[in-house]
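Practice problem: predict the structure.
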Amino acid sequence: MLTLAKRFFALFLVLSIGGQALAEDAPQPIRALLVTGGGWHDFETQKQLITEGLSERIHIEWTVDYEAGRRADFSPTRFEDENWIDGFDIVIHNHGLTNLREHDPLAARIADAHHESGVPAVVIHNTLHSLRDSEKWHEFMGVKSRVHESNRPREIKNLAPEHPIMRDFGETWTPATVELYTIERVDEGTTVLADCYGERHDRRHATYWTHQYGNAPVFGTTIGHDNRAVADPVYLDTLARGVLWATGKLDDDGNPLPAYNRTLATR
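Answer:
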């Protein structure tokens, strides 16, 4: 009886140690910071759509900074710490801080942290206009935009179907509505992935792109005004792939690294 008990105890130890080893070997999730809030948009709903939508698709954990709430003239206190970016694998910016009196100081604190640390960024919709009086902000974005056209249904065209982010986007996508941002300038080195026609200037404007800002990969989109667009599977799939691309977890064929994929299609 004693021998049998010893065998069970030995088996228990083996299973316990093995389970601990497997847990230690399991890949850590992408540590994402979502900075959101501000004016003109329903950021409270969007933070749920984005965090829940991406968590369904990829292996990611979240820190959400919604300190700004609905205030467009608020500067999040997080950025007062010179080491604010430490501990994150990526920062997703989805905010509308357009009414701050001075744009340059905050733009520098955010942009310089990405530039120097190499922590990737995803920049969404109104983020482009958040600190639009700062030229450094536009350089960080990779494109320059200060105004937008009307919000209505529009067709977005995939310009880079072979790009890993855009492989499953389709030839075109027509969200519920698109508040089309006027792109004044596309910086050298920026790769435009998709665009959309704007009637005001009778030309097409970038809607998805990538670029390198110093040491940091940046993925950007001007789409994100309408909650229905943000909740669209095409939008969330593309955003998830953008996060994987920026963090080096998407191969050249558009396949996520297996440990970081939950529901995204593979080839």
